[in-house]
Amino acid sequence: MPPNQGLVHAKEYDWRDSNVELVNSELDHKVKHQSATTEPAWNNGTVGAQPGLYIWRIEQFEVVPWPKEKYGQFHEGDSYIVLHSQQVKTDGEQEDEANNKLVHDIFFWLGSHTSQDEAGTAAYKTVELDEYLHGAATQHRELQSAPSDAFAALFPRLKILRGGASSGFTHVETNEEPEHVDTLLRIFKHPSAATRDAVLVHEVEPTWKSLDEDDVFVLDKGDKIFVWQGKKCSPMEKLKAAQVVNDLTIAKHVDTEVLSQAESRSKVVVDYLGGEDVDIITTQFKCPRPIGGRVADERERKLFKISDADGALSFDKVKDGQSIGRSDFDGDDVFLLDSGKDVWVWEGKGASRAEKAVWIRIVQKYVGQLGEDAAATSVAKVHQGNEGRAFWAAVEA
């Protein structure tokens, strides 16, 4: 089926008859920017002015700074906003730090059990932060189940914990309880080939059914820590487990025991996890990883254009395959690039209000038609002149 069928119908995008007429208008930007200047989280003197990594968690509809010592730790019951600002040299400039400009990437990260109000607040505040940065940021939506390579690259020690903060409509208990609760951490390599060196730490249900012979697990019982090494685990996963144990034992001095699945003594870990009746010799320990990789082969690269140059909004394929390049992007329109793995939206400086207003609906429909691959496809939006390295790498891949 042609790419525009089922995605675009002219009558559907008569934006003058909808409530989006003012979206991306000068008034709209002024109102959003004014709102952003009153947000304490952005107005700390460094956001937008200095390179660095900044993280906030959504709590009771508020944007609350995340402690730096917890950077890389995320709770599956929460939503977060992550800002990464870095200096880059623009074309023709010398290697002079004073002349380099800041390029910003904003990620709003949605935990698998975050509430709708938290997710909505994170999305709204991400747009607000972009307005505060004068529309110079690349916006990314991150799902816990399928982190993008760009996000994983920021956190080589990414750790996903259960629980979360209280929200306006729901309350999720955190794992910071007065009494000790057994904690089971699963340690495994990132499933993406692009980040094959990244090893993730994910808190899982403390039951023997969570064990998998391909990975390493750390069981914290409060008075003792066990490390269970699956018989097919990698040296990198063993090393990461040692780092995790070191972090756990800094705060409390407890004994640690490292056990290989092949050892008969490893049955003690299975027993502690409720598997007293499990035969560790005949049982195959298998459990799906909480973060999956790509479920389908890489798609063919495609470039589409959203334009109203002919008087009606259209969504047409411009190119496909490896021939896509920088020269294919026209500053008077909005483009959708399917890199074969991720979807990027590029907004030209001269794009019309209508083009800027409808891209989100087109992206939603496009990703929705990717079938099983949709859940593992990340979406990012960039503005002409503020593209980061990741975008151009996707274009020129």
UniProtKB/TrEMBL annotation:
Coiled coil: none
Gelsolin-like domain: residues covered: 62-151, 199-249, 327-357
Matches recorded under Pfam families: Gelsolin
GO cellular component, one term: actin cytoskeleton
GO molecular function, one term: actin filament binding
Gene Ontology process terms (BP): actin polymerization or depolymerization
SMART domains found in the cross-reference section: GEL
InterPro entries: ADF-H/Gelsolin-like_dom_sf, Gelsolin-like_dom, Gelsolin-like_dom_sf, Villin/Gelsolin
Protein name, per record: Actin depolymerizing protein
